[in-house]
Amino acid sequence: MQFTELTLEEFNDYTAKHFSHFTQTEQNYTQKTDSGIETYLVGVKDADVVKAACLVTLTPVMKVFKYAYTNRGPVLDYSDEAVFKAFFDGLTKFLKPKKVMYLRVDPYEVINKRNHEGEVIESMENDYIFDQFKALGYDHDGFQNGFDPIVQVRWHSVLDLAGKDKKTVFDEMDTLRKRNIKKAEKNGLHIKYLDIDNIEIFSKFMKDTSEMKSFYDRGQSFYVERKRYFKDQVMIPMVYVDLEDYNASIAQDKKKMEKSIKKAERALERDPDNEKNQNKIKNLSEQLENIDAKLTEGEALLKTHGKELPLSSAYFIVTPHEVTYLSGGTDNDFRHFAGSYLIQWTMIQYALDQGIDQYNFYGISGDFTENAEDYGVIQFKKGFNAVVNEYIGDFIKPINAPAYKAYKTLNRLRNK
């Protein structure tokens, strides 16, 4: 068994067949190398058979040294100790002559599946991974919660699609998700897909939403670059309301409601003291007022915005293993149209059509209390019948121990 650099073909073939993150792809490799980032494809072979693969990047630190990162890798069977040891021993030797100060590894390995209250519903029984890393001189960086612009989030909300059809997936959602999806489909909402030439529509949604909710937005260049390299594997759905269709649908609702009120009024005329009919008319009249308000709003929006009104947009990266909802934004003034629900349902159906077994709503903070900074987001994802993947976290190994010690000391002094 031998640690070695892999050809792009070998890397692609292995990662396509073994579950892996979108950062462990040819597209990410090409984007990194074209950007001038020192990037390597490495792995382990047993004879000519690839047993492990990893995209590793090297970034300058303290001018003369480098920091190595495995980008949610390596992709390997962590229960195979021989492969594990061959890879990480080989990686250390590979990095030493490249002036690497330290290595950060963040395996795409789940240790627990939890519900959205934070309770463990299934343990992966893979605590042995901690021991394997420790034996090779790695320190675990802790069970981090929250979000960091550099370190990958340790919690994902995911929907298992394996063996399910669209009806089953829809039926397993909560009442609010089902109601809002049906509402969006009924009220003239449609999806179109953005490309690089009109990605600024998505970027504006992201900018407005990040400012309103005070979260970190990667910026338009991040999204443009990945769309350029991932091509059709990046999908940017934008939901809009066709206001002519919407107004026509609301007008139909008004006619039906007026008909129902007249029917109830005739029943009340036959029995004026019937309290049930009196309450029914009152309830129907309140519903009619709401419908009139919607119709008034729709007609005003049509005059102001024209036929199509953009409501929400989102950014997805697709691999053979999962559809990942990386980010999204909504015009807060038009949240009541429930556009974001239609985007999620459309992309879930896409994953089912493509035979992709995991739909990844992506990062959550890991704080399951009502005080969580992303409490509303957690509840939104939970409602689709998602579960929470808790990942193993990061492991750090000094490659140049004296330099790494000096680096940590300097950082402590700077942060005082």
UniProtKB/TrEMBL annotation:
PROSITE patterns: FEMABX (PS51191)
Keywords associated with the record: Acyltransferase, Cell shape, Cell wall biogenesis/degradation, Coiled coil, Cytoplasm, Peptidoglycan synthesis, Transferase
Keyword Acyltransferase on entry: yes
Coiled coil segments of this chain: 247-301
Annotated GO CC locations: cytoplasm
Catalytic activity: beta-D-GlcNAc-(1->4)-Mur2Ac(oyl-L-Ala-D-isoglutaminyl-L-Lys-(N(6)-Gly)-D-Ala-D-Ala)-di-trans,octa-cis-undecaprenyl diphosphate + 2 glycyl-tRNA(Gly) = MurNAc-L-Ala-D-isoglutaminyl-L-Lys-(N(6)-tri-Gly)-D-Ala-D-Ala-diphospho-di-trans,octa-cis-undecaprenyl-GlcNAc + 2 tRNA(Gly) + 2 H(+)
Domain of life: Bacteria
E.C. no: 2.3.2.17
GO terms under biological process: cell wall organization; peptidoglycan biosynthetic process; regulation of cell shape
Subcellular compartments: Cytoplasm
Gene Ontology MF term list: aminoacyltransferase activity; nucleotide binding
Claim: Acetylation is one of the keywords in the record: no
InterPro entries, sorted: Acyl_CoA_acyltransferase, FEMABX, PG_Glycine_Bridge_Synth, tRNA-bd_arm
UniProt similarity note: Belongs to the FemABX family.
Protein name: Aminoacyltransferase FemA
Species the sequence originates in: Jeotgalicoccus halotolerans
